[in-house]
C-alpha cells in the first residue's frame, strides 16, 4: 500500500513537472558589445531593450576607470551618489531584476556627467510572442560568471515543488 502511494506520488510529481512552462530570461548587457563606456547613447540603448521580471542586467567596463552606482531618481537626475542604493566596481557587475519597478544606475566616477547613466522600468511579464519577432541576441544568464548559460525558471517555485514532493513521499 505504501509503495503504491509513493509510486502514485512520483507519477503525479512527474506530471506536474512536465506541465511546468519554461521561461527564458535575458541578460541585457549595457551598451551591447561596447559595454559601459563614455560616448554611447544609453537612452537609445534602453529604448531597444524589453526589461521583464526575472531578466538580468550586466555592466562590463574597465574597473579602474568606471563603476556602477544604483541610485534613486534624484541621484540619476543630478549625477550624485548621495544616498546610493549600491556601489559596484568589479568590471563585470550583474543584477537580477526580480522586482517590477523603475531602476536608476550611474557611473559614480564622473562618467554620469558625460551620459553614462541609465534608467529603465522592469515589466511584470513579456509581451505575447509573435512569429515575426526576432529574439534578443544578448546572452542568457543563470549565474554571475558565465554569460553563456541559460536561466530557465519554472512557472512554479522550486520550494512549491519540494512541498508537493514532501506531501506525496512523506518527508
Verbal overview:
It contains four helices and seven strands, in the order H-E-H-E-E-H-E-E-E-E-H. The protein is an alpha+beta fold. The strands form two sheets. Strands 4-3-6-7 form a four-stranded antiparallel beta sheet. It has a three-stranded mixed beta sheet with strand order 1-2-5, with no helix packed on it. Helix 2 (about 40-45) links the parallel strand 1 and strand 2. The longest helix is centred in the first third of the chain and has 18 residues, at about 1-20. It is globular, with a radius of gyration of 21 Å.
Structure summarized in a few sentences:
The chain is α+β, with helices and mostly antiparallel strands and 171 residues long. The protein has four helices and seven strands, in the order αβαββαββββα.
Secondary structure layout plus pairing:
Elements: H1 2-19, E1 27-29, H2 42-47, E2 55-60, E3 68-70, H3 73-78, E4 86-88, E5 92-97, E6 102-106, E7 117-121, H4 158-169
Parallel strand pairs: 1-2
Antiparallel strand pairs: 2-5, 3-4, 3-6, 6-7
Helix pairs in contact: 1-4
Amino acid at each position: 500500500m505504501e509503495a503504491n502511494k509513493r509510486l502514485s506520488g512520483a507519477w503525479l510529481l512527474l506530471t506536474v513537472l512536465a506541465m511546468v512552462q519554461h521561461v527564458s530570461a535575458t541578460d541585457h548587457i549595457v551598451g551591447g558589445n561596447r559595454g559601459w563606456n563614455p560616448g554611447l547613447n544609453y537612452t537609445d540603448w534602453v529604448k531597444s531593450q524589453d526589461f521583464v521580471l526575472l531578466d538580468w542586467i550586466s555592466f562590463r567596463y574597465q574597473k579602474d576607470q568606471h563603476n556602477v552606482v544604483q541610485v534613486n531618481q534624484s541621484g540619476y537626475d543630478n549625477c550624485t551618489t548621495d544616498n546610493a542604493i549600491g556601489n559596484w566596481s568589479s568590471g563585470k557587475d550583474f543584477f537580477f531584476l526580480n522586482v517590477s519597478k523603475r531602476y536608476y544606475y550611474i557611473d559614480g566616477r564622473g562618467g554620469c556627467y558625460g551620459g553614462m547613466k541609465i534608467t529603465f522600468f522592469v515589466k511584470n511579464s513579456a509581451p505575447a510572442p509573435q512569429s515575426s519577432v526576432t529574439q534578443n541576441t544578448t546572452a542568457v544568464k543563470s549565474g554571475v560568471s558565465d554569460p553563456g548559460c541559460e536561466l530557465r525558471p519554472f512557472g512554479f517555485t522550486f520550494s512549491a515543488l519540494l512541498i508537493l514532493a514532501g506531501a506525496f513521499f512523506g518527508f
